[in-house]
Amino acid sequence: MEEAMGQFDSLWEEFFSMQREMQRFVEHLAGKRPSFTPFAEEPWVPACDVFETDVAFFVVVELAGVDPKEIEIFIQGKKLVVRGERREIPSPPKRDYYLMEIHFGPFYREIEFEEDIEDTAVRARYRNGFLVIECPKKHVWERRVPIDEGA
Description:
CATH topology of one domain: Immunoglobulin-like
CATH architecture of one domain: Sandwich
CATH class of one domain: Mainly Beta
Number of strands: 7
Structural class: alpha+beta
Radius of gyration: 25 Å
Largest sheet: 4 strands, antiparallel
Distance between the termini: 113 Å
Strand order of the largest sheet: 1-2-7-6
């Protein structure tokens, strides 16, 4: 009886191992794989919030564990590009994952605004794993044109 139970346990272990491998493969197909796996070649996309006020757009990018020196921010017309890399944390060489949700390797995020931004006034700060980017809107000043009533 114990031998049968041992075989049953072994089957379940094999099943869960296959399930984890399948989950990794499906996540790879959906573009959610960390780069230290053999599947990942594309940059991962960090989560972000984008909101606006009357004078600026704000982009908050979740980048916990990323060294600010590894982050680049570019302005291309109405587009804001944030890219960089999160380096893998050193860990034991032999490991069996039960859950893999943290992305490592290169990342890339592009945001397109509805209005032009003042590219020379964009500011960014990194605190507690969040990159906050303030993008002031370009102001188009309205000027009243006087009408000449003379000849």
